[in-house]
Specification:
This protein starts with 31 loop residues before the first strand and ends with a strand. The radius of gyration is 24 Å and the shape is flat. The chain has two domains: 64 residues; 80 residues, PH-domain like (Roll). It has three helices and nine strands, in the order βααβββββββαβ. Strands 1, 2, 3, 4, 5, 6, 7, 8 and 9 form a nine-stranded mixed sheet that branches.
């Protein structure tokens, strides 16, 4: 049976997209890991910022309600302050929460585990050496680096600033075919 072309009144044939190739996973323990002290300090700072966002939102709401109840400001201003705080609070919580959930960078023999940053969120992702394109390692403290590595899909894997040592960056640079610019 032959399919009738669409211009002759036939129905279009929908083809399924090919399945994505499965992501490889690391085999064995990491060769290098990020400094746990730096990672924990990063996460603690993000948790403090999240608590500050909560306190600021609550403070704006309370001040607006007191100002409206006391007759200092019209109720519409209190309502606008509360609406602005209610609009910004979820965004602040998502941004600081994703920073607080960020884990340390791990270097394995087959690739790297890092944090893929998207607009507001961060995702943990393993990338084999063949998926790394170009990157940059900036020294943020003596002997401590912040690494950002581009992937084939256009996204970026990032480490926490200062968590990687010079040896880890040199190992990644060697395995990534000298595509990491060290500054």
């Amino acid at each position: 049976m032959r399919a009738t072309p669409i211009h002759e009144g036939g129905t279009p044939v929908v083809r399924k997209a090919p399945p994505e190739r499965p992501q490889p996973l690391p085999d064995g323990p990491p060769v290098y890991t990020g400094d746990p002290g730096v990672v924990e300090a990063w996460r603690a700072r993000a948790r403090r910022e999240e608590r500050l966002a909560r306190a600021g939102t609550l403070g704006i709401a309370v001040v607006g309600a007191i100002a409206a109840a006391g007759g200092v400001a019209p109720p519409i201003i209190a309502f606008a302050a509360l609406a602005g705080a209610a609009l910004l609070y979820p965004l602040l919580v998502v941004v600081t929460g994703s920073r607080a959930a960020q884990r340390g960078f791990e270097v394995h023999a087959t690739g790297v585990w890092g944090t893929e940053r998207r607009r507001l969120l961060r995702f943990r992702r393993f990338a084999p050496w063949t998926d790394l394109t170009m990157g940059e390692a900036r020294e943020v403290a003596p002997g401590r680096f912040h690494l950002q590595v581009g992937l084939l899909g256009g996204s970026v894997l990032s480490s926490i600033p200062g968590e990687l040592s010079r040896e880890a960056v040199d190992y990644i640079n060697e395995r990534a075919a000298e595509q990491i610019r060290i500054r």
